[in-house]
Amino acid sequence: MKRWFSSSLILFAVVTVVFAQKADVPLNPGSLVEAERAFAAASVAKGTRDAFLENLADDSVLFHPGPVDGKKWWREQPVRPGVLTWQPIFASVSRAGDLGYTTGPWEFREKSLDDKPVASGYFVSIWKRQAGGVWKVVLDLGTRNPQPQTPAPVLQVPRDYPVNTKSKPKVDVEAARSTLIKTEDDFSKLLAGKNTVDSFLSYLADDVRLYRTNAFPVIGKEASGVALAAKPGQLTWQNVKTDVSTSGDLGYTYGAYEFKASGDSKTTESGNYMRIWKKQANGKWRVVLDLLNPIPPATAN
User: Fold this and answer.
1) What is the DSSP secondary structure assignment for residue 186, as one 8-state letter?
2) How buried is 274 (Cβ within 10 angstroms: 0-12 exposed, 13-18 middle, 19+ buried)?
3) Which of 147, 153, 155 is nearest to 115 (CA)?
4) pLDDT tens for residues 66-117?
5) Start-to-end Cα distance in the chain
6) Whole-structure pTM over 0.85, yes or no?
7) H or E segment and range at residue 226
8) How far apart are CA 259 and CA 74, in angstroms?
9) How far, in Å, are 76, 79, 109, 197, 271 from residue 291 at the CA level?
10) CA–CA separation, 192 vs 126, rounded Å?
């Protein structure tokens, strides 16, 4: 779920993002970043409800607490006080320029930007180009973490970001989707049979981002291994949906998960997961972002 960013950071500032590109390059991450920044600015200027209704795709999915129709859910919500703000610090798009994602810190203030944040975390939004080339959010989920004590990092894009020329890669999209579904299934089966940190790491990209609630994002395969080892347990999941770009190099999955901590069979954490996959140079799908968002246990009456 989208939640905030630092009040003075970029919302109303005029920021120019320059990406090296050739004259015939029609697409770059800048258009996605600007869409995210406009979304964030609308949240402050118009309110969270209207901002989401403007920026969600018709088939968007949010989580309240499980997956729901995003636009329908927001239409049914009353206007509430509070300011939700956020800032993209990382963005990536597919080679075809039709699918991308943004992530960064969010914050929530109860009344105005002058208030201190009462909640903070990191969001992940998956965007898809619609008819006419407009970016819209198709999936949005996030985590909570303690209030940051340092400014947010500057915006980054992948070091191997591809140059999009006028010629579009030709890919069998259904075949690419089927391959990703099988890869996620193989990932699940591997952990069921060999539940080790190394098993989990074998499906992660070197530049993976690991998002867990009550912790700041962990970046990189080595650091992710340390974080996973600090909280051992059995992770299982059920994939609900898989989608890929028309260039077959970027995709995502989401669904429900359960986590049983080692040595504590009575405690089971359950919630929603989001996984962003990127095809590597060797042709294999690997996870570039892995997010678990637990659903709080129902309060007893």
Assistant:
1) H
2) buried
3) 147
4) 999 999 999 999 999 999 999 999 999 999 999 999 999 999 999 999 999 9
5) 27
6) yes
7) helix 221-230
8) 30
9) 27, 29, 24, 16, 10
10) 28
